[in-house]
Amino acid sequence: MKITALFIVLIFTCTYCFAQLENVYNSGELISVYSKRDNWAAHPWKKDFADSIPLSLINNETRDSSVDVFFIHPTTYTKNDFSDWNSSLMDDELNNKTDESAILYQASVFNASCRIFAPRYRQAHIKSFYIDKETANPYFDIAFEDVKNAFEYYLTHYNNNRPIIIAGHSQGTVHAARLLKTYFNNKPLGKKLVAAYLIGMPIPLNYFSSIELCKNKNQTGCYVSWRTYYKGYEPSEEKNKREIVYGVVNPLNWEAINHQYVSKQNNKGAVMRNFNKVVKKVVDAEIHNNILWSCKPDVFGKFLFHKKNFHIGDINLFYMNIRENVRDRINSYFKGN
Question: Quick check: 213 and 251 in contact, CB under 8 A?
């Protein structure tokens, strides 16, 4: 009887505690969620996949951490049997999936030049992109609230007036663009923006009023963006949106010139399935209206590759070009250009 009574008390107490945590969390206040490093997929003071460097680069690698990158990972919450439209921060299986994919193959591109902060967040399920906006918006709002809280915690506790790069891919770019509009666009913090890498989602050219599309490899305080498709392919939704102009930059020459072809000879290296092997001259690139066209990746077994949407490789296919460009923009920032 005593054991049963004690069990009921414990259940009530724990339920109350979790309810209180949920109430505080949903209030949007800066609480201790992001003081815990477990709630960061990448953090300078813990060993994580963002620290990884392809083996072929290690001997020639020089590290510099004069700038911070705040990286927002893409959607990894894709399982079919889901009950909640937003993921949990405490889903270990999902966190491992995120770390071994997006953090390793994408966030790591910044580690030669930056301290990397990549928060875990209650990401919206992948199907949120395929339902009507009115229904989906609350799910994306929940995800953004986490990103916003993480960024504010970062600003308060870690930034110390350091220059910042904002980066994201796919869903991460949705939140990154919103973050830029909230904290940088026509705001004092805009002076600290080295650049933004808004990859994998369309960014209307007029989305920001004070942050413009980058026009060359050295420009700072601007953003780059692209979505990669097989050359000659144009998704049907793009044909219906030609009246909207999106910002697109070619990651092989960092120019925003429509229909300018850049040969794969300018591709300095991609990271494919084998992270430790950098493969040069994998794809070419050409801006075609609102998207980026590339050839089929020039790798072993390419004849088996039939996808026309290269979204998953938006960063991987241009890994070394991005890595070099981060350095270029940082150098330019400190020179005052």
Answer: no
Predicted TM-score of the model (pTM): 0.90
The first and second tokens of residue 219, run together, are: 């420009």
Give the residue among 94, 129, 57, 63 at the shortest CA–CA distance from 330. 63
122-137 mean pLDDT: 97
Identity of the residue numbered 324: E
Contacts of 175 (CB under 8 A, 6+ apart): 72, 121, 140, 143, 144, 147, 168
Structure tokens at 201: 């989602």
Strands 164-169, 67-72: pairing is: parallel
In sequence order, which residues have a C-beta less than 8 Å from that of residue 209 and are 6 or more positions away? 185, 186
73 Cβ contact partners less than 8 Å away, ≥ 6 residues apart:
41, 98, 102, 103, 106, 107, 118, 123, 168, 169, 172
What does the pLDDT look like over 254-305, one tens digit per residue?
999 999 999 999 999 999 999 999 999 999 999 999 999 999 998 766 655 6
Tens digits of residue pLDDT in 195-241: 999 999 999 999 999 999 999 999 999 999 999 999 999 887 766 66
Handedness of CA 315, 316, 321, 322 (dihedral sign): positive
Which pair of tokens denotes residue 120?
Answer: 């875990």
Strand pairing report for 278-279 and 270-271: antiparallel
> Could you tell me which residues are beta bridge partners of residue 271?
278
Contact residues for 166 (Cβ-Cβ < 8 A; gap 6+)? 69, 70, 176, 179, 180, 184, 193, 196, 197, 198
Backbone torsions φ then ψ of 147, nearest 5 degrees: -60, -45
Q: Quick one: average pLDDT of 97-122?
A: 97
User: Which residues does residue 246 pair with via DSSP β-bridges, in sequence order?
Assistant: 204
The tokens for 299 are: 């790798």
DSSP code per residue over 109-168: GGTTTEEEEEE---PBPGGGGGS-HHHHHHHHHHHHHHHHHHHHHHIIIIITT--EEEEE
